[in-house]
Amino acid sequence: MKERAVPCFGNGELGMVVPVFLAAVFLLCSGIPAGSSPLAVQIKRTRGPRDEPFVGLNIGTEVSNLVSPEALVSFLQVQKIAHVRLYDANPDILTALARSKIRVIISVPNNQILAIGSSNATAVAWISRNVLAYYPKTLITGIAVGDEVLTTVPSYAPILVPAIEFLYSALVAANLHNEIKISTPHAASLILDTFPPSQAFFNQSLSSVIVPLLRFLSRTGSPLMMNLYPYYVFMENKGVVPLANSLFRPIAPSKEMVDPNTLLHYTNVLDAMIDAAYYSMKNFNFTDVKVLVTETGWPSKGDSKEPYATIDYADTYNSNLIKHVLDKSGTPLHPELTSNVYIYELFNEDLRSPPVSEASWGLFNGDLTPAYLLHVSDTGGFLANDTTNQTYCIAMGGVDSKTLQSALDWACGPGQANCTEIQPGENCFKPNNVKSHASYAFDSYYQKEGKVAGSCDFKGAAMITTTDPSRHSSFFLHQGKQQHRAGKFHRLKWCSQQIRAHHLKKWRDRCIGEGISTSSSNTFLPFLFNSYVDATLSYRPMTVDLWLDEIHSFVIVP
Ligand SMILES: *[C@@H]1O[C@H](CO)[C@@H](O)[C@H](O)[C@H]1NC(C)=O
Ligand SMILES: *[C@@H]1O[C@H](CO)[C@@H](O)[C@H](O)[C@H]1NC(C)=O
Ligand SMILES: *[C@@H]1O[C@H](CO)[C@@H](O)[C@H](O)[C@H]1NC(C)=O
Ligand SMILES: *[C@@H]1O[C@H](CO)[C@@H](O)[C@H](O)[C@H]1NC(C)=O
Ligand SMILES: *[C@@H]1O[C@H](CO)[C@@H](O)[C@H](O)[C@H]1NC(C)=O
Ligand SMILES: *[C@@H]1O[C@H](CO)[C@@H](O)[C@H](O)[C@H]1NC(C)=O
């Protein structure tokens, strides 16, 4: 069983400290100091051409009905996820990852550190059991020794660096120390006074551990691992840290945070946190250690105290994060150095304890259905569907039907939305109610107008969403094995909410009968089916027969 630090500062009893942005100064300045710093030069020398910055995914497994390791690995490949971090060294997952070319950071759980740090032999055994048994078939590229040890289990602090050194010696003995890097992920709260970044420093009372650690990282060319959550910075400093900066949204120059000492402009919180880590290391005279963001993310659901844990914000943060990393724009301090980042996390871990957000950091549910769709379609297929760069316009909930009807009349009349499909007898006539029809017409208008500002208003009756209104009922149909093998399939799109209960029940029963799913959710069934087919790259003929049987229910979208 893994033991894992809660990735949040808000875990009261731990008394963690949130990075304080209270010193944020808003200045209007020009002239961003640019150019190569010594760090950039030093690190560049050690970077090969294949070291393009990447985004990986953390895989926590406190998920009910988690798919098999084999299905997990196929799924990672379908999603083009090439880097993952595990919170342990799960033998089944490491075995399944063999020959997948997916690179993996494995972890020493916190509760094993004491044993390893006390005994060289234990460290040797650990490496043998968890690394040598799999490498090189499984591309283990890093070992994270514990998670947020210094802030969650400070009593282990004295043993942390010895544990790291012992593990390193064992890697040296196996001649794998160049391929596999060892470090330990820290909570952001280890760094104090994070804004302005140039004044940030490590908690001095831990310097007896941090200095030897940095010496180790510098000597071995290993990264400083940091878990950095702009979400918590925003939540703990509301009114001071703008939401837009936390989400990487474009902001007016006057809203940029300016470091008064360096005059560097910070347009987003994550970059400021990364630079705070660089300045903190510099305070201890270490200038050649790179920052690796082992965790960052945004929850998509929360309780009443977590109003910013929503799908739209989670989508915005994670989509913008991915684009930011793949843009290779570095940070204001180190424009040449883009940190690799691991998103927290792949799955919604429904078995984690409250608050609600704890179970809602994932991009996907445990059954491989997306928790929401990211907007990353120009990232070479990484986590992307061609259709995900989408916003939709739908009828707002709670608007009375008279208002909706007049907005609908306007859209289909003067607005010239294409309302063919919602006419009687057409594909999207059912369900025949004003809200469904209005959503259809609003979106038609919105798309026709090129989504320009103001085209999704309808006097307040409409709202923009990133969730495809037909997503619960749209899926790919694999039109026969040959075409599937050749990677060709048509997208069949169901009109929003046109699901007929009896069809779904039939499919669900078949699914359960086939052992594909035990999910009792009607809504997600077509979705689940499709994910299953995608994930396993195989399907049963019955699947296709079943779909074809219902083909008249669908609109084919090229
Ligand atoms: C630990 O074992 C390695 C060999 O596996 C050896 O090189 C190293 O010197 C040992 N360290 C200590 C402190 O005993
Ligand atoms: C610094 O670390 C010490 C030791 O873990 C801890 O007691 C203290 O609260 C930390 N200080 C701050 C400001 O976080
Ligand atoms: C860093 O270097 C400066 C100048 O060489 C020195 O004065 C200072 O004590 C050093 N700081 C640490 C933490 O080693
Ligand atoms: C694309 O979207 C479908 C559902 O619309 C989903 O099942 C699939 O996993 C997605 N694929 C990728 C590569 O994101
Ligand atoms: C996706 O949306 C972003 C922002 O709206 C835009 O810059 C980008 O060009 C879009 N990509 C595609 C492939 O449409
Ligand atoms: C309206 O939509 C229908 C069905 O999707 C399509 O066949 C028709 O060409 C569209 N009309 C216009 C003017 O775009």
UniProtKB/TrEMBL annotation:
The keyword Hydrolase applies. GO terms for molecular function: glucan endo-1,3-beta-D-glucosidase activity. Its EC number is 3.2.1.39. It is a lipid-anchor; GPI-anchor. Signal peptide: none annotated. It comes from the Eukaryota. It is found in: Cell membrane. One of its GO terms (biological process) is defense response. The chain crosses the membrane at residues 20-41. GO terms for cellular component: plasma membrane; plasmodesma; side of membrane. Residues 391-475 form the X8 domain. SMART domains: X8. Keywords: Cell membrane, Disulfide bond, Glycoprotein, Glycosidase, GPI-anchor, Hydrolase, Lipoprotein, Membrane, Plant defense, Signal, Transmembrane, Transmembrane helix. InterPro entries: GH, Glyco_hydro_17, Glyco_hydro_17_plant, X8. PANTHER family: GLUCAN ENDO-1,3-BETA-GLUCOSIDASE BG1-RELATED-RELATED. Belongs to the glycosyl hydrolase 17 family. This is glucan endo-1,3-beta-D-glucosidase. It comes from Eucalyptus globulus.
